[in-house]
Amino acid sequence: MWYLVTLLSLSSLVNGGGVPQVPCYFIFGSSLYDNGNNNAFVTAARANYPPYGIDFRRGPTGRFTNGRNTADIIAELLGFDNYIPPFASARGQYILKGVNYASGSSGIRDETGQHLGARMSMNQQLLNHQSTISRIVSILGDNESASKLLSKCIYTVGIGNNDYIGNYFSRFYPTRSIYTIERYAEILIQQYSQQLKTLYNYGARKVALFGVPPLGCSPIVIAMLGANGSLCVDIVNKAIQLFNAGLIQLIDELNKNQQDAKFIYLNSYHITMTPTTGFKFTNTPCCEVGGNNTLMLCIPFRTPCQNRSDYMYWDAVHPTEAANVMVAGRSYVNLDPSDTYPIDIHRLAQL
C-alpha cells in the first residue's frame, strides 16, 4: 500500500492542481477491466451484485472485484478526478475524457466466452470506439480537432486471458484439439495485430498492452486442471508465456512500423509472480465461489473473507483490489525493469 501512496503523491505533483497528465483515457479488455458494460447483458459474466463492490464507494457496479479494478487505479494515477465511464452509460461531454469498453468473458477471438452468454469481443469494442469517435467529432466540430485529442490520450488494452480459460482450455470449445499451444499463440497474435493496427488507424498513439497474467495459478484453473496439492498448472502458464512473448515481439514491430506512435508492454505475468506485497493466500478465493452457475464467480450475498488485502484472488479468477493496486502501480511506474517494456505508463503519458 505504501507504494500506491507514493505513486499517488507523485501523480499529484505531476498533475499540478488536479489537471490530468493526459486529456483522455480509453480502456479495452476483459472482466479484469470491465466496470459495468456487462450489467444489462444476458450472461453469466456479470458482477453487479454483492459481495462484489464491498469495498467500492458505490457498491456493486459490475466491477469483478471487491473494490477498484486496475483501470480505475491507473485513472487515479493519471490524475483523473472521476473513473472512466463504461461505454454502456457514457454520455455527452464525458466521453471527451475517455470511455471504458472492457467486457467480461470477451476475447481476441469472437467466439471466446460465448458459452457464458453475451459479451463484447475485442472486435466489437473497436466498433464501439468508432462510434465514440463519431460522437467526439460531432462535439468538437471537425475531424482534425478529434484526431488531435485522440493522439494525446492513453489507451490500455488487456485482452487474451479468456482466449485461454474461456476458449482453448475450456471443454466447451474444440480449439485445443485443433491447435498446439504454439500455433494458437501465433494465431492470437496475428489477429491481435490487426486489431491494434485498427486502433492505431482510429487515432491511438499512446498504447499500453497488458500481458496475460499467470492464469495457471488461479483458483479456477487449479480446480479444473490441477493435480491434488498443485499450486499452478504448468501447461496453462506455458501457453500464456508463449502468447506474452509473441506480444512483446508484436510491440517491437508496431513501434518500428508506426513511428509516430508508442506501444508498450505491461508485464502483469511478472508482476503477479513477484508480488511486492506479502499476500498470505495466492491461489485461494476470498469469496465463496459458485455464483451464476459458474465455478468462477462469487455466490450472491455470501459474506467474503474479512482480511481481503491478504488475498491475491477475490473470486476464482479475478484479483482483489490489493492485487490490482500492485499491478496498476508497477505498470504506472515500474519497480524493476521487467515490469514494463520499453517504458512505463508514466513515461508514456509524458511523450
From TrEMBL:
A GO BP entry: lipid catabolic process
Primary location: secreted
Signal peptide span: 1-16
Protein name per Swiss-Prot or TrEMBL: Uncharacterized protein
Top-rank taxon: Eukaryota
Subcellular location: Secreted
Keyword NADP on entry: no
One GO term describing the cellular component: extracellular region
Keyword Transmembrane helix part of the UniProt annotation: no
Family per similarity comment: Belongs to the 'GDSL' lipolytic enzyme family.
Keyword field: Hydrolase, Lipid degradation, Lipid metabolism, Secreted, Signal
GO terms, molecular function: hydrolase activity, acting on ester bonds
Pfam families: Lipase_GDSL (PF00657)
